[in-house]
Amino acid sequence: MDIEKLRRQHGELLLAIGGLRELVQAGAREHATAIHDQLVAISSAIKLHLAVEDRVLYPAMEHAADSDVARTSRQFREEMGGLAAAYAAFAGRWSLSTRIAQDPQGFRDDANAVFKALHQRIQRENKELYPLAERV
């Protein structure tokens, strides 16, 4: 399976998260509107990426003849549910730039936690899941 598009999306997400981090470091209150706009863009990219994984990647891997590939795919899919829910809750809490401006430290703390988990997930997919997907 060709997963180059998924790898590219990972890279784009990491760049976008880096841009968000720079805005937050420059001042969450002062840049609340730009942060919100970046967060909307990141959320859209995540939704698209997850849709591709759910509709194409996981089904193909779970029907693979190799039981290790199928098992790993199921495990990753199950784990993703918790992270996707945590991200959705985060995005919902910070869906207005005024909320970010009113509680910049709360946003910073929340963003650090969710994006750390997302970064770890991306790293695991790149190192564990995608090499297996290339065998399908």
Automatic annotation (TrEMBL):
Alphabetized InterPro entries for the sequence: Hemerythrin-like
Protein name: Hemerythrin domain-containing protein
UniProt superkingdom: Bacteria
Residue ranges constituting the Hemerythrin-like domain according to the UniProt record: 2-133
